[in-house]
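Researcher: Structure for this, please.
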Amino acid sequence: MRAALGRYYDVESPLHALDPRMKIHLLIVLVLGIFFTHSFMGLFIVLALALIAIVLSRVPINFVLRAIAPFIILFILPVIFALFFTSSGEVLFEWGIIKVTAEGLYHAGFATLRLVVLFLLVTLFTLTTSSIATCDAIDYLLAPFSRFGFPGHEIAMVMSIALRFIPTLQEEFSTIRKAQLSRGATFDEGGLIRRLKGVFPLVVPLFTSALRHAEGLAYAMESRCYVGGGHRTCYHRLKTKPLDWMVLILVIIVDVIIVII
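Model: Predicted structure, token format:
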């Protein structure tokens, strides 16, 4: 099974057809709304909007779930901290130093739902926007800063390459892990120190593979006389359509609603 994180799902849909620059604006607006809202209702509205966007994108829901699965541990951490380190509020359960309060449950659920919605939106962006389109959009948005010496094109290229190699490194990690398991290596047995030592047979080959990919990519770019900077032209011209502006206005309205409720 191929890794879904950071992978572009190539299919025709209204979400894929949106201007990538506008999709970056939409993502920024929604993320700001997520962090400024203080109610469950606001988060549920954004979650409903994200689910509608998934349906419109025609990306299978299991593909989306596979993409956010690696971040499950991040969703659990707020629950642990909020449940066991929030002492204020009505005590619902107490055992030794462990104290679960109603306020702790509220903050745990709110923090977890906020992270889920956030990662869902970011994942949906990567699934519906190719790395080339992302690079072009970031390059265009950072272009005004180039007059101040800011390397916008180079930053856009680096981000595009990083997104492109996430699934590649995931697949290589899975291959390395299976190879080590076939040689008798164990990664989930013994104490903490032994498990940490078992990580090195995975990290070292993966780090070596990442350097090999970086070196090969550098040689390929040099052989093609790649030079960054503002003098470069674009093969694909980005065009903003009326539908893009309509979606942005709708999202801004939703953002205002979830902040004030």
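Researcher: Any notable elements?
Model: The mean pLDDT is 81. The chain has nine helices and two strands.
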